[in-house]
Every structure is written in C-alpha cells, then in structure tokens.
Amino acid sequence: QCPWGAPNTTSISCSLADVMSEQLAKELQLEEENAAFPEVVAVAEGPFITGENIDTSSDLMLAQMLQMEFDREYDAQLRREEKKINGDSKVSISFENYRKVHPYDSDSSEDEVDWQDTRHDPYRADKPTTTPRKGFIGKGKDITTKHDEVVCGRKNTARMENFAPEFQVGDGIGMDLKLSNQVFNALKQHAYSEERRSARLHEKKEHSTAEKAVDPKTRLLLYKMVNAGMLETITGCISTGKESVVFHAYGGKSATEDKVIPPECAIKVFKTTLNEFKNRDKYIKDDYRFKDRFSKLNPRKIIRMWAEKEMHNLTRMQNAGIPCPQVVILKKHVLVMSFIGQDQIPAPKLKDVTLSSEDMKKAYYQILDMMQQLYKECNLVHADLSEYNMLWHDGKVWLIDVSQSVEPTHPHGLEFLFRDCRNVSQFFQKGGVAEALNERELFNAVSGLNITADNEVDFQAEIEALEKMNEDHVQNHGKKLSMFSSDGDPPIYDE
Ligand code: ADP
Ligand code: MN
C-alpha cells in the first residue's frame, strides 16, 4: 500500500507531455490574446453608429466623415500659417489653392454619396510589421517567438492601433518603439476606460443634437452641408413626424454671391423608411408631372421625389407672393428652406396659438386669399391644409408642408380641395369668425366652380363627376382640360 493513498488516475485529462508542450502553451496564449484583442474594427465605429442602420457602407461613411473633419483641421492650420506669414504686410500670399474643403456642390442627383476620396493619408505612419498569428517566425534554431522581448515590445506598440481613435498615442506607432508588457497593459487599461467615458459623453451629445433621428447617409449629407460652410450649425430637432424630421440650423455662407442663405434655416429630411409613404402613393402616382417617372423608380427615388415636389411647390408659392418658406437647397431627400420663427423658436401652428378675434378674422381672410392664389396663380391644391400646417408669424399666416400638393386637374384634386375647405371652414367657424364661409361656399370661392348642391353628399358626388369627366377627357384627347380660363371665368368642363 502506498503511504500517500491511491492516485486518482481518472482526473488527469491530459498527459504530462501535453502540459509541458511548448506548442500547447503557445496555442493557449494565442487564444487568450485573441480574446483580449479581438479583431474588431468595430472599436472605431462604436460611438458614431447608432440604432438599426448599421450597414456595410458605414465604414465608408465613417472614413469620409473623418477625412472631412481632417481636411477642415488642415484648412484651419493653413489659415493660421497664412496669417503668420503675411502678418501686417501689405502684400499677402494666399494658400487658398491648397485648401481641401471646397464649397458645397449642389449638382448631383446621383444615387450614392458622391464624395469619394481614396487618397493615401500622408499623416499616418505605416504600421510596423508584427509577427504573424501563429506566434513565431523563422525556422529551427532561428525561430523567433512572440515572447522575444524586442518583437513583443514592437507588437505592443502596434497594438495601440486597437485603441479608440480619440485616444492619443502620439508618434509611438511610427517609431521603432518597444513597449514592455507592463507599460502596455497600463496603457490598455487607460485606453479602454477612456473609450467607455468618451462613449458615454458622445451618447449624451447625440441625444441633444440633430443626429439621432437620421440614418448615417443622411447624417453625412447634413455633415457635408455644415462642412462646406453652407450651414453654420445644426442646432436641433423641431419636429419628428411620420414622414419627415425637421431640424433647425443657422445659415452659413453661400458659395455663390447671388444666393443668400437665410440666417436661420429649417431642414426637412424626408424619411427613407418607406412604410409611411405607401398610403401617399395616390398623391404622386396620379400627378401627371411625375407620372412618367413613377413607374420606373425605386423607393428611395420616390422619397426624393417628395422632397423635389415640396421644393417645386414652394417655389411656385414664393413666386405668387404667398407667405411660405423659401427654398435654399435640395439635396437628395433633404430640403433646406428658410426658418419661419426666430431664435430657434419655430412659429406656432395655428392650432396652438390663441388669437384675438380681430387677428382670427384677419387670418381667415388671408387664408381665403392664399387658397385662391394657390389655386389660380400656382395651379395647386394644398391637399393637407389645416391648422396643423399653417404657422402664425409676424402677424400673418404662413403655409408649409406642401410636398403632397397637387394640381387641380389631378384625378383627386378637387376632392383634396374640398377636404382642405372643410378643415379651414370648421376651424374658423369654431374659432368664432362669423363671416367664415361654409365648406361648400369656400370650395366654390376658391375654385371658381359653381356647384349648387346644398348638402355634402350631393356636393361630393358632383365633385367626383367633374373629376371623372376630366379623366375621360384625358383618355380621349390625351390632354387635360383647363380648370380655369385666363380671365378668371369658371372652367368649362363640357366641350
Ligand atoms: P410633416 O409632413 O412632418 O407634417 P411639416 O413640413 O409639416 O412636415 O413640418 C413639421 C413641423 O416642423 C411643422 O409643423 C412646423 O412646426 C415645423 N416646420 C416645418 N418647416 C418649418 C419652417 N420652414 N420653419 C419653421 N418651422 C417649420
Ligand atoms: Mn405638417
């Protein structure tokens, strides 16, 4: 009997030879390291990408945003040097041609992000080479394992690349610097806690700015506008609706002399998630202006068409002198216009403002006027007119939200107009404006038509009959009937 008792042989799961094996040790060590330094590029992505919109193109976007930021800093440095060289001298030299940020291009209706610069980044040192993953290089006696002090030190230096981008590592990566494990581990600890801290900070910032409500591509678009100096700053979100998000921004400098950017702007971002737009098809599908294009388009382009429609409609209104936002620029699904309001505070909607009975009456007559102008001069029906889309600013009513507006000859144009009239009538009748016409009278007053039905059902039936007549005319003659003649007489529907 053995004095130390019987050895429990079953608990040995591997042989002594295995345990002592250099090879196994290396493998274990490598495994451990791989776990400690997973090959995640995601570290760099972390703070910038939020929500559900992580797609494969976001690496590209990130790179582009960084490059732009970089270019901006470069330009700032250039300006400082320019200033230093020129001093008070009467003759000055300009570094203008060396600038990297160039005025915002408003050209392309191109599909993808048009800013693509793959220049080699001159500021970044080449990475020092590291030993390959297998843990050793060379053969036989010349084998160098990763435990070699020098190699290990270099490798540690190279690993600083894994730290978050905002973690300043100085020139170490470029030099032949060898970090001992101890130093490296201390740095690593610090870097990771910094990263967590900065992620927290960034999170806070994101919640307070415009950025959270839009996808990366849109953010890049907005970023470009700011970067080009067209917008000074985007201060925050005014409204998040089903179909759009609206931001406030301070205007910047225009690239061209003739165009003035308003001091305060509203940025309407049409949402690129499509579900909400499905039920709006009828507005655009039947709008002959967009008819040819509709069938061929992909959903993303349809969204852009809404933005385009709003722009065109606003321009028409502007030309007729109707108080409405002024178009600044349209870029893809992002429409920048003048801000109705002041000091970041948007003008209140008519539904939210309490007007004196005098102002109420004034507002009513103004709207009556605007509806007629819209119909006769702009050849448009608002199609979503209500106290929600009228703002009270500067003692008058401003019309907004015209992406769904259509021409009166739209197959449902008159129905839309009737709905608008009903909203307006009801609002002002409830608001105590005794003079307010009822919806049928208002419809006739705006359209110049003379529908005599004295009840809503018959009235609507007549409207639909008119629309159908017009459609048939289009079918038979390939062109629309004029809804109104130039001298202001009611339109002639019969031939
Ligand atoms: P939606 O289709 O989401 O209703 P709107 O164009 O009506 O889009 O904009 C939503 C809200 O944003 C408006 O109710 C208004 O409060 C605000 N808004 C939109 N455009 C402007 C602008 N140019 N100036 C000030 N506020 C605006
Ligand atoms: Mn609206």
Report what the structure shows.
- The protein has 495 residues and is α+β, with helices and mostly antiparallel strands.
- Among the domains are: 142-206, no CATH class; 212-346, Phosphorylase Kinase, domain 1, CATH 3.30.200; 348-481, Transferase(Phosphotransferase), domain 1.
- Helices cover 42% and strands 10% of the residues.
- The chain contains 14 helices and 11 strands.
- The chain has a 5-stranded antiparallel beta sheet with strand order 3-4-5-7-6, sandwiched between helices.
- A hairpin with a 6-residue loop joins strand 1 (136-137) and strand 2.
- Helix 12 runs antiparallel to helix 14 (456-477).
- The chain is elongated, with a radius of gyration of 33 Å.
- The structure holds adenosine-5'-diphosphate and manganese (II) ion.
Main CATH class of the domain at 212-346: Alpha Beta
Strand order of the largest sheet: 3-4-5-7-6
Helix percentage? 40-55%
Low-confidence stretches: 39-56, 105-131, 203-211, 484-495
| Small-molecule binders | adenosine-5'-diphosphate, manganese (II) ion
Provide the succession of SSEs.
HHHHEEHHHEEEHHHEEEEHEEHHH
> Span between N and C termini?
123 Å
Quote the beta fraction: 5-15%
Number of helices: 14
Largest sheet: number of strands, sense, barrel closure: 5 strands, antiparallel
The class by helix and strand makeup works out as alpha+beta
CATH superfamily of the domain at 212-346: Phosphorylase Kinase, domain 1
Rg, nearest Å: 33 Å
CATH fold topology of the domain at 212-346: Phosphorylase Kinase, domain 1
Shape: elongated
Number of strands: 11
Mean pLDDT: 77
CATH architecture of the domain at 212-346: 2-Layer Sandwich
InterPro entries: Kinase-like_dom_sf (IPR011009), RIO-type_Ser/Thr_kinase (IPR051272), RIO_dom (IPR018934), RIO_kinase (IPR000687), RIO_kinase_CS (IPR018935), Ser/Thr_kinase_Rio3 (IPR017406)
Subcellular location: Cytoplasm
Organism: Ciconia maguari
Family: Belongs to the protein kinase superfamily. RIO-type Ser/Thr kinase family.
